[in-house]
């Protein structure tokens, strides 16, 4: 008996790119990325359609000929969704869904969807929900489909006198947006307090920034496995994406993981993640991690750098870290980025070099302190002098009383001898 053909479990998507010749837009590369984004969102990418035109059609983004082609494709491919590789205006989205009688999403909605499924920390979840609601608010069609997709649920809210369902939904969303903003402001405050505490304790922060899939989390884990991750005695409450790390010099730093980037990151998302990304931009050192085996590595590095610059990273040194070097067959394919470190986070190659580079790239900070050093620890005074300076010294029966500028690297060692 012939087996009945079953449709694959993942929804099938038709990809659409409209190339209007904008300077930096590379339709092919962007479509490839859309392909990957679809896969990571759990879709099955189907055929793609590309159109070059002077400007996007105001009503439907693409021309009527291509629209017909997509309609055909949808039916032959039994597609479930059509994905546009650019942002669609509320009008375009509405018209396209009406014309194609199928779910239509744009690149931004897709990215937001991925973020929503990935967000782990409660703050991350709030940030993504805020971005989604802000994006959807003007795009509500009144049919309730958009809302139900992002978990808002439509038709369940009490309608005010004379209100249409659409108005009710909008009112509900606006209220939720306000409440999300408030919650985020609170957690932002908590984060600021943490940051101040670290500053006071002189603990430098190192931010791990980079394109999605560059290997940031793998690197975080590699550092843990290398045994260099100190248990966080110093900071009782680190947020889930920050960890304490001890460098070979003995200096402690806080390593911050950040949200993965993609080109044309939806601006709503950047806005929602502003405080997190800004924290990264304000770190003492930024590691710009990229997948060195990707032919797009240079683009990825510059997308990240541009974003950081838009966040006023100012004087913060940025160290490019080329990851996945185990996959590199031809080293001449490395992106040209000046000083950089090559590693393989997966195999732990180059991790020591990276830690040394972090040590060297961090600004050397000296701290003024008063210490009572027992005579048997006289060697410590010599080390302080070598890496910093002793401003005043006095011999007491208990030991040497000094006022000194102590190098960051020695902070741990001198801690037991600090006097107020
Ligand atoms: N071959 C190889 N694969 C690696 C290396 N580092 C990471 N990967 C793989 O790359 C993929 C992505 O790694 P992640 O650590 O999740 O990347 P990420 O930067 O945290 O990604 P996002 O969380 O999406 O921003 C995983 O499948 C890793 O196993 C490496 O050095 N070599
Ligand atoms: Mg990650």
From TrEMBL:
Chain residues that bind Mg(2+): 217, 237
InterPro entries: G_HFLX_dom, GTP-bd, GTP-bd_M, GTPase_HflX, GTPase_HflX_N, GTPase_HflX_N_sf, P-loop_NTPase
Lineage top rank: taxon: Bacteria
Keywords, in A-Z order: Coiled coil, Cytoplasm, GTP-binding, Magnesium, Metal-binding, Nucleotide-binding
Binding annotation for GTP: 210-217, 235-239, 257-260, 323-326, 344-346
Cofactor(s) demanded: Mg(2+)
Protein name: GTPase HflX
Record organism: Solibaculum mannosilyticum
């Amino acid at each position: 008996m012939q087996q009945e053909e079953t449709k694959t479990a993942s929804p099938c998507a038709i990809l659409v790119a409209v190339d209007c010749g904008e300077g930096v837009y590379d339709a092919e590369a962007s479509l490839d990325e859309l392909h990957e984004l679809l896969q990571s969102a759990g879709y099955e990418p189907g055929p793609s359609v590309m159109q070059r035109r002077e400007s996007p059609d105001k009503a439907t983004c693409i021309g009527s000929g291509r629209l017909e082609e997509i309609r055909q494709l949808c039916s032959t491919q039994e597609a479930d969704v059509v994905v546009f590789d650019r942002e669609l205006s509320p009008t375009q989205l509405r018209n396209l869904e009406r014309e194609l009688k199928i779910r239509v999403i744009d690149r931004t909605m897709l990215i937001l969807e991925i973020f929503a499924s990935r967000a782990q920390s409660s703050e991350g979840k709030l940030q993504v929900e805020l971005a989604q609601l802000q994006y959807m608010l003007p795009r509500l069609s009144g049919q309730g489909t958009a809302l139900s997709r992002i978990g808002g649920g439509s038709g369940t809210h009490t309608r005010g006198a004379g209100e249409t369902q659409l108005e009710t939904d909008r009112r509900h969303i606006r209220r939720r947006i306000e409440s999300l903003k408030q919650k985020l402001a609170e957690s932002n405050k908590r984060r600021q307090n943490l940051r101040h505490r670290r500053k006071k304790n002189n603990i430098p922060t190192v931010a791990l920034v980079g394109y999605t899939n560059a290997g940031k989390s793998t690197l975080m884990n590699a550092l843990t496995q290398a045994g260099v991750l100190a248990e966080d005695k110093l900071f009782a409450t680190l947020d889930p994406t920050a960890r304490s790390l001890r460098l070979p010099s003995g200096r402690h730093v806080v390593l911050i993981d950040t949200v993965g980037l993609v080109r044309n990151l939806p601006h709503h998302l950047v806005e929602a993640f502003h405080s997190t990304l800004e924290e990264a931009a304000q770190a003492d050192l930024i590691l710009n991690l990229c997948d060195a085996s990707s032919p797009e590595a240079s683009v990825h590095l510059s997308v990240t750098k541009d974003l950081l610059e838009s966040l006023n990273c100012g004087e913060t040194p940025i160290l490019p870290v080329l990851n996945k070097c185990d996959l590199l067959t031809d080293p001449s394919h490395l992106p040209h980025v000046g000083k950089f470190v090559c590693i393989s986070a997966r195999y732990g190659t180059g991790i020591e070099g990276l830690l040394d580079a972090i040590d060297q790239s961090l600004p050397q900070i000296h701290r003024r302190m008063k210490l009572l050093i027992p005579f048997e620890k006289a060697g410590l005074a010599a080390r302080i002098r070598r890496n910093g300076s002793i401003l005043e010294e006095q011999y007491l029966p208990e030991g040497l009383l000094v006022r000194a500028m102590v190098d960051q690297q020695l902070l741990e060692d001198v801690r037991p001898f600090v006097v107020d």
